[in-house]
Amino acid sequence: MNLSCCRLSPAELRYWLATAETIKYTTVRGPYKMAVLTSSELEQSPNVMRFLGKHEPYGCYIIKYCVGAFKEPHTDPPNRGSSKHQHERMVCMLQRCDEGGWLYIDGEPCFLLPRDAVIFRPDLEEHEVTPVFGGERIVLTVGKLVEP
């Protein structure tokens, strides 16, 4: 497991939580809700822009995990561009749920508090989110494709 960590500023956390309350969730699968983010929304967050650098955003979402929501172990190979691209992703915790909802990367727990972010390679590292048993887990997830 090859992880990097960063942290959102308090102002960024407030911005993203407000966005999570007002944005339209376009994918709703039971207790799992996902909203696609625009470039103009991403530009409001200096740490997101620092992560993206010169790369175009790839699969950028706010995801709400309500009670019962989870993601089974999986990888996310790039499906755009050539196979030579690597998929890098930043997952930022906006709101912890009351119980459950733990992120595991390559079988190891990744404990994130609000404002914490982890950067990893979802194309190579299997990851999952355990079922949420209480409250809502809200994350900001931002990807990019890079050449090795």
Protein model, in words:
With 148 residues, the chain is α+β, with helices and mostly antiparallel strands. The chain contains three helices and 13 strands; from the N terminus they run βαββααββββββββββ. The longest helix is centred in the N-terminal third of the chain and has 13 residues, at 10-22.
Strand content: 35-45%
CATH H-level homologous superfamily name = B-lactam Antibiotic, Isopenicillin N Synthase, Chain
How would you classify the helix and strand content by structural class? Answer: alpha+beta
Named CATH topology = Jelly Rolls
Helix content: 10-25%
CATH class: Mainly Beta
Would you identify the regions where 5 or more consecutive residues have pLDDT less than 50? none
Name given to the CATH architecture: Sandwich
Largest sheet: 7 strands, antiparallel
What keywords describe this structure?
alpha+beta, 148 residues, single chain, 7-stranded antiparallel β-sheet, Jelly Rolls, 4-stranded antiparallel β-sheet
Map the helices and strands.
Elements: E1 4-7, H1 10-22, E2 27-29, E3 32-36, H2 39-42, H3 46-52, E4 57-65, E5 71-74, E6 86-95, E7 99-100, E8 103-105, E9 108-110, E10 116-120, E11 127-129, E12 132-134, E13 137-146
Antiparallel strand pairs: 1-10, 2-3, 3-4, 4-13, 5-11, 6-10, 6-13, 7-12, 8-9, 8-11
Structure described in brief:
By secondary structure, the chain is an alpha+beta fold. 16% of the residues lie in helices and 43% in strands. The protein is built from 3 helices and 13 strands; from the N terminus they run βαββααββββββββββ.
